[in-house]
């Protein structure tokens, strides 16, 4: 099977969280419900402590932190208010074909590792 072109690769919404974080625990059900309602995007919940090998040296300063992008394009990496409408509005604005990317190579590498493991 030939590799997908970048434009045909799915967009990913990745939540970096920790089980000990009360906010993350409360946010997870809403995140998963939004994932079920938005099949055009791929969603991943990554516990930075349970999946320490995957996350590597990437330092999450605030939970929950969100990554939005696809294999070759990072569109967003920052904490998010844990509310579905905030995430939906953010994703709709940033995951369009002409939205600007970001040049953070470390975060893009993390996103690529998560996509490779979860695909």
From TrEMBL:
InterPro entries: Thioredoxin-like_sf (IPR036249), Thioredoxin_domain (IPR013766). SUPFAM superfamilies: Thioredoxin-like (SSF52833). PROSITE patterns: THIOREDOXIN_2. Residues 1-96 form the Thioredoxin domain. It comes from the Bacteria. This is Thioredoxin family protein. The lineage of its organism: Bacteria, Pseudomonadati, Pseudomonadota, Betaproteobacteria, Burkholderiales.
């Amino acid at each position: 099977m030939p590799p997908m072109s970048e434009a045909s690769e799915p967009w990913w919404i990745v939540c970096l969280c920790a089980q000990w974080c009360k906010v993350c625990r409360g946010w997870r059900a809403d995140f998963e419900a939004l994932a079920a309602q938005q099949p055009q995007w791929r969603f991943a919940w990554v516990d930075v402590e349970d999946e320490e090998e995957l996350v590597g040296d990437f330092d999450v300063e605030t939970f929950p932190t969100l990554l939005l992008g696809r294999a070759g394009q990072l569109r967003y990496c920052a904490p998010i208010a844990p509310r579905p409408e905030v995430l939906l509005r953010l994703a709709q604005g940033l995951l369009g074909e002409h939205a600007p990317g970001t040049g953070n190579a470390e975060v893009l590498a993390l996103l690529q590792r998560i996509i490779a493991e979860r695909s």
